[in-house]
Structures are given as C-alpha cells and as structure tokens.
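Why run this: before we spend reagent on co-expression, it is cheaper to look at a predicted model of the complex and decide which construct boundaries make sense. The entries below are exactly what would go into the expression plan.
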Amino acid sequence: KQEVTQIPAALSVPEGENLVLNCSFTDSAIYNLQWFRQDPGKGLTSLLLIQSSQREQTSGRLNASLDKSSGRSTLYIAASQPGDSATYLCAVRGYALNFGKGTSLLVTP
Amino acid sequence: SAVISQKPSRDICQRGTSLTIQCQVDSQVTMMFWYRQQPGQSLTLIATANQGSEATYESGFVIDKFPISRPNLTFSTLTVSNMSPEDSSIYLCSTPGGPYNEQFFGPGTRLTVL
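The model came back. Tokens follow.
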C-alpha cells in the first residue's frame, strides 16, 4: 500500500524567505504526483502536476521536483508571502490518489 | 479544467439523521470520486461513483453508510446515513481532467454532527 509522508508537519517563516516542503512515497510505480493547496475549511486547489517521466514543473514562484527512483518530491516556494499561508498537500497517483497529511505553512509579515 | 460545485457548503446535523451532498461538474466526466477529510487528517477515498452501475467502495466504507448515486455524467450524490459525531468531516467530490489526469476538487461540504 502506498504511504505518503510530508515533512515538516508545520512551518512558520517570515515573509520573503524561500522555503522547501518535502514529500516522500514508498511505491515508485506512480503515474504522476500533484501538489495542492488547502485553505482552512476549504477544498483543494491544484498547484502543480508532475508526470512520472518529468523531473520538475514550475508555476510562478513555485517549483516542484520529482525523483521517482528515490520516492521523493519537493515543493520550493520562492519569496514567500503572507498569502501563501495554507496547508500544502502532496498526492501520488498509482491506482488511486494517495495523500500525505500535509504541511501547514504560516508566513508572517 | 473541470469546475466542480457542491451543495451544501456546510451543515450542522443531529446524530441519527442523514445528509445528502450534491456534486455537479460543468462537463461530462467518466469518473467521479468522493473523499473524506476528518479533522486534522488528510484525505481518504470513500468510493468511486460509476455512471450506470453501483459505486466502488474502498476498504472501511460500505454502501449502507455512504450510499452514492450517479444518474448521469455530470452529477453525483453522497449520502451520509445514520450520522454520529465521528462523521464530522469535510466531504469532497473530485474528478480527473486534462491530458495528464490532473485531479480537480470541489469546494467541499463541511459537516458537523452533534
């Protein structure tokens, strides 16, 4: 069974810092990996999708990398802003979509 | 990308009652999924809603507790039956879309059972 782990569970940084969120998974037989953002009490917003054949994807200040062989992905956020405060979820697609527990990010002004 | 809406957005219910959650997609989709997110936890897949046949439930979820309908390719409902406080969660509808099977989610239904 696919296990997805996200580290750290929570993170607090001052505005302007660059930061890295980590995601690891146990079964490398995946189709893709997706990063989501979830605001408190809300649904999920898709941030980036990386196909299993890709190494990274970029969207604005966000960059996600994938190392399928080692079962790892990172989400890099450049020049963080208070509006980035949310929970970030990593999800790995094999047969089904398996989620990590998320990293709760707080960016302070 | 698929645009997904859910009704209701939130509800507070008494134990022993049932609540039906609606999910509407703005285009025809083959697969629709229902997820649960318990407080402080990540998302867990409840079932896959199949058009024209019974839903496929994941381990730990049963049809009597979570009956699902899928009358057409744009709509599905999830009923949470005989509710208890342990059913307090956010329930999310989801569908894949685009050329790379990107997963899209509805805004969720926040359920509190007293």
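The longest strand of chain B covers residues 89-97. The interface with chain A takes residues 1, 6, 33, 41-45, 58, 90, 92, 94, 100-108, 110 of chain B (CB under 8 Å). Bring this page to Monday's planning discussion.
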